[in-house]
Amino acid sequence: MVSSMYVLPGLLSLTVFLPAAGALVILALLRGQRAIRGFALLVGLADLLLALGVFILFDRSGDADRFQFIDRFHWISAETFNASYFLGVDGLSAPLVLLTGLLGFCAVIVSWRINFRVKEYFVWLLLLQTAVMGVFTSLDFLLFFLFWELELAPMYMLIATWGTGRKEYSAMKFLLFTILGSAFMLVGIIAVFLSQPGGSFDMTLLLESGSMLNGATAALPLGVMFWLFFAAFAVKLPTWPVHTWLPDAHTDAPTAASVMLAGVMLKMGGYGLLRVNVGMFPGEIRTFAWALILLGVISVLYGAIVTLRQTDLKRLIANSSVSHMGLVLVGIGSVGVAAGELTAVGLNGAALQLFTHGTITGLLFAGVGLIYDKAHTRYIPDLGGLAARMPVAAIALAIAGFASLGLPGLSGFVAEVLIFFGAFRAYPWPTVLAVLGIILAAGYILWMLERALFGPPRERFADLTDASFLEAVPLALLVISIVVVGVYPAFLTDVFNAGIAPMVEMINQGLNSPAVTPR
Amino acid sequence: MVTEPLVWAIFFLPLLSFLLISLVIRPFLNRYGWLSGGLLIVALAVSFGLSIWVLRQHNQGADLTFAAHTWLELGDASIELGLLLDPLTTIMLVVVSGVSLVVQIYSLGYMRHDPGIARYYAYMSLFTASMLGLVLSANIIQLYAFWELVGISSYLLIGFWHDRPAAAAAAKKAFIVTRIGDVGFLLAIIYLFFQGAEFAAAGLNPLHIPDIWQAAQPLATGGAILGGAALTWVALGIFAGAAGKSGQFPLHTWLPDAMEGPTPVSALIHAATMVAAGVFLVARFYPLFQETREALTVVALVGGFTAFMAATLGLVMNDIKRVMAYSTISQLGYMMAALGVGAFGPALFHLFTHAWFKALLFLGAGSVNHASGTFNMRYMGGLRRQMPWTYLLILIGGLSLVGIIPLAGFWSKDEILTGAWLGSDLVDPWVARVVFGLLLAAVLLTAFYTFRMIFLTFHGEFRGGGAQEIADAAARQEPPPASVSEEVHRAESPLVMVAPMLLLGVAAIIAGYLANPQWVKSILTIPAHWFAEYVESAVIFGHLETPHFNFMIAIISTLVALAGIGLAWLLYQLLPSRQAPEGEEGEESQGELAEPLTKAGPLHTLLSRKYFADELYEDVLVRRGFYRAFAGAVDWLDRNWVDGLVDFIAGVCRNSGRLLAQFQTGQVQFYGAVIVLGAVLILVGYLIFGAGLRG
User: Taking CB atoms and an 8 Å limit, are A490 and B642 in contact across chains?
Assistant: First the structure.
């Protein structure tokens, strides 16, 4: 193994735990809303810069280590339990760490108007960021699971306490759905542990052809383990038919929680699918690719159709997420080609979709949150004519909308095209159906813009003010990221591909179980 | 020496203008909005100069092939950006930058008082850059990207006055309807990528446009890399995209609504450039179409039918811009039909001439609107006295549109008719004959609606303009259309508007004959059939025949056109003037227009309701069928079954929990009783089944 160019021990741990440390400081030391907000902003900014550092310093050259910035020490006795504190990033997770840092910072700013139990609010928000970053960087299954569960409490609190509408119902629904999924995952993780000689939670071993799971020594049939993990990730993604927690949770959550929920937490599902189901089960993923693409296409079309019917701005965007995350499954479905013929296109598209959807939907929710803050309604028939009153918010919402409907030059397009390219090779007709989704996307986005932003200015919105400078910062940051990725996607795909290429290689070798590919 | 950066500059200059306007002028210098107009005009003047220069260099045989740049590379997929400079591109560069330049100058006057002028020029910059990028693209993904950007800038410009509900709705409709076609285009691209391995085996890149042409050509061994039914489907997919952008039936319904945008926008986008992009797209992939008779037949028949159908709709419209919109659809149908029957050169020649004279007509409509405050011809009339220049220029544009010698439209339309008459070996003879019949019939209709428009607008008595229209609407207790203004000042438009029209008028006169001399061997050193043969050299495979001037066709088409003009004169000039003395006072007749076409009864209704296409698409298919019935059902299922199941399971858990909780009474007596009961049950069970267990 060639050693990485940059060996910066502790950098990744710092990136992951800085928000949690900030939360502790707020909890223990700070008083007064202004101090708390200001400090949270600083922590968010520092963590964004750290995440950016990790992303930029990540060595993309061909002979670099697959996992970099590794922080590892034994945690629970090596002889009996063999669990370790083990963080590291590869090409797949490095951009997602950046995404989390970016949206975490934006989430702090969009929370500026929170004035109810401010201290607790920012404690939970920062803790959430640590939990999500932990999921993306854990390379030990036990640690991964801990972070996965850790994220639930802050999100539950944020929705149930600072939300709107049926907030307790939605928070509980979110919690139960996710826990149900994680129960399956826990069984899967135990099975993985027992399947490894001597027992191990080391995820990197499972990604290497020499030490990966194999059907002969596995504690459970590999196909069963595959679906156990899939269940957890499918709920989180979410895919049809386990998506119904999402519109409720998004709609009733406070703006920052919606941004984090749609922007990074759904990505935990997509990340898990790519890391575990694709990376660790290269045989099963080919066997079951048809099921994934089927679920994906249903989610794309069904999500889009339901979106068209929505009259609440946030609910509309939430449902559009179901449709867009369905595309991730369609992209993963591209592995359903014959062994040896898989290319990295579809999987890269799926990975890129995680990032692009995060920024686009984050921007959509930030824009809608701004409108809701000022107009005090999200009910679309009551809105209208806002473009004249709030041009900055309107422009941000329009750009996010254009990106969401796949306008070239903005990031969503690149991911969609790569997904379609990849999936068509494996399953042409389902892909054609998924492509039809772009008409529906144009329909619900443009119709939303028309009803919310255009039309004659309304009397009762006469004294609405536009976004302040601070409120415009997250909008601008997200717009910039959307444009940069749209114009020069290699900025991200070079990194993503470093993580995905080894998976593609393993699948092409037809490892870990023979697969018959139904076309 | 043409270098690559100079060619890129043609595209980047308007893009830079877009960035400067939207990042600097609009936020910080919005009070000086006219600055943005100046900026774009300067950028486009340079782009136009460069385009002319590139065209000259290319025509003189300069080598203008440049290596592509990698944009995205993933395993075997490599997407490149590059420049493709062939006659098609060089001509389009001149058309796009030229018409855009003229329109931007005109807009300085037309949009002078609009507070959103900086935003207007930002969108215009984005549009022009996208359109120039589109025609320069060497890679099909690159082309698709600009194709969509053209679509979104059209969306922004149609909806420019976003506080008008009709404009916002029209913008949305334009984007969605064209996107339906774009799905076909995208699927064709996806299919090409899917064939990547076959392309690569032959050393070709499946996304590089010249390589795609190459792949469609028959191999020496028989067959083609891209051939048979697959080629037909790819070609039809591309045509679907083209039909959407060019407003071909059945995707034509967005274009008339798009007239809600500012008039200079209609002149640039919905007359000269964006709508021509569809024709350009089919021409760009002509080497594919040449190899598939089925696809070409579809192109020819759709084009011919659209030319005729749209012309019938132009007959009855009262909105001057809608007359022109249907006229545009119809003329685009001519171009498509020409491509379909193999008349490649004539199609592009008509695109070229049409761009100038149709832009002129639209700018003229804007000028008329400036004076009368309305677009409704029922409230115009008699304007020729106050607006001599506008009248003269619209007359030139109109005669060119009708195809009267020696104006530009005559030469190009005649070439198309000749091409359709002669047919080619690319389609069956019956197809060419049907198309010829449709196109000739459309000549009659074109002449009629054009002169109906001119008579209603400029002749007769003035019927009150926007003020009258608002008064009438008030009398009917209806809100007047948002585009109507009460300010009526019947006078010629300012120089900044008339001068650009004058330039276009000159082009409408000379562009036909000078660009493509037909009768003589050469004129001013321009050889005969220069234009047609130059653009045909873009199609590097197969052989294209340039139709030569045919006196018989020319005479027939001129007679048909004159008949149309005569009919319009009869109905709108002669009959009203005969009836006028029999009418009552002159005051009464003002504001009232006898429309002779209403005598056609149901036929008139059918036409003025646009064959009920909007009702069918929007009310029946989209609103009732898709939105209410289908999407409503899915949404209901989602809430009541998919989510209902979740709540049901939760309810079962909660209720069974509640049921079991009732046993936890906390009373020792109750627990004791249950324990005794359990013990008794076990004992009884043991006595009954115990024997079996022991045995």
Answer: no
Mean of the per-residue pLDDT values for chain B? Answer: 85
pLDDT digits (tens, 9 = 90+) for B491-525: 788 888 888 899 999 988 888 777 777 777 777 77
Contact between chains at A428 and B186 (C-beta distance less than 8 A) = no
Q: Which chain A residues are within 8 Å of B73, Cβ to Cβ? A: 490
Whether the CB-CB separation of B251 and B180 falls below 8 Å is answered with yes
Q: Are B156 and B258 in contact (CB under 8 A)?
A: no
Three-point CA angle A53, A483, A387, nearest 5°: 125
CA distance B337 to B296: 9
B:125-164 residues touching chain A, CB 8 A cutoff: 141, 144-146, 148-149, 152, 155, 159, 162-164
Tokens encoding A425: 């090779």
Q: From CA B50, how far away is CA B2, in angstroms rounded?
A: 9
* Phi, psi (degrees; rounded to nearest 5) at B71: -105, -40
Give yes or no for residue B16 having a pLDDT over 70. yes
The secondary element (H helix, E strand) that includes residue B527 is strand B526-527
Rounded to an integer, what distance in angstroms lies between the CA atom of residue B27 and that of residue A237?
Answer: 39
Written as six digits, the tokens of B501 are 């029209």
One-letter amino acid of B501: M
- From the list A293, A207, A222, A233, the residue with the least C-alpha distance to A517 is A293
Six token digits for residue A170: 């939605």
| Integer CA distances (angstroms), A97 to A13, A22, A45, A358, in order | 12, 18, 14, 12
Which amino acid, residue B651? G
Q: CA B137 to CA B89: how far, in whole Å? A: 9
Q: Which residue has the tokens 């041009």?
A: A391
Contact B289, B299 (CB under 8 A): yes
- Show residues of chain B in contact with A417, CB under 8 Å: 141
Yes or no: say if B408 and B356 are a contact pair by the CB < 8 Å rule. Answer: yes
Query: Residue A168 burial by CB count (10 A; 0-12/13-18/19+): exposed, middle or buried?
Result: middle
| Residue B478 φ/ψ region, left for φ over 0, alpha for ψ in the -120 to 50 degree band, beta for the rest | beta
Tell me phi and psi for residue B137, to 5 degrees: -65, 135
Which one of B142, B638, B647 would you mutate to disrupt binding with A, by most A Cβ within 10 Å of its Cβ? B638
Nearest alpha-carbon partner for B357 in B492, B246, B243, B512: B512
Write out pLDDT tens, residues B639-659.
Answer: 888 777 888 888 888 888 888
Sign of CA dihedral A164, A167, A170, A176: positive
Are A511 and A209 in contact by the 8 Å Cβ rule? The answer is yes
With beta carbons less than 8 A apart as the criterion, state whether A94 and A137 touch.
no
Rounded to two decimals, what is the model's pTM?
0.90
Higher pLDDT, A228 or B462: A228
Q: Do the Cβ atoms of A450 and B172 come within 8 Å?
A: yes
Calpha distance A137→A178 (Å, rounded): 20
Domain parsing of chain A, residue ranges: 1-280, 282-519
Q: Do A306 and B638 touch (CB under 8 A)?
A: yes
Place of tokens 């106050």: B386
Q: Which tens digits make up the pLDDT trace of A421-454?
A: 999 988 999 999 999 999 999 989 999 999 888 8
User: What is the nearest CA distance from A449 to chain B, expressed in angstroms?
Assistant: 9
Closest chain B residue to A347 measured between Cα atoms?
Answer: B74
Q: Nearest CA of chain B to the CA of A424: how many Å?
A: 7
Token output for B33: 């909005």
* Residue labelled with tokens 């001037």: B549
Chain A hits for B634, CB-CB cut-off 8 Å, are 302, 305-306, 309
Distance of CA B150 to the CA centre of its chain: 10
Kindly report, residue by residue over B295-311, the tens digit of the pLDDT: 999 999 999 999 999 88
- Pairwise CA distance, residues A500 & B320, whole Å: 58
Q: Which helix (H) or strand (E) holds A336?
A: none
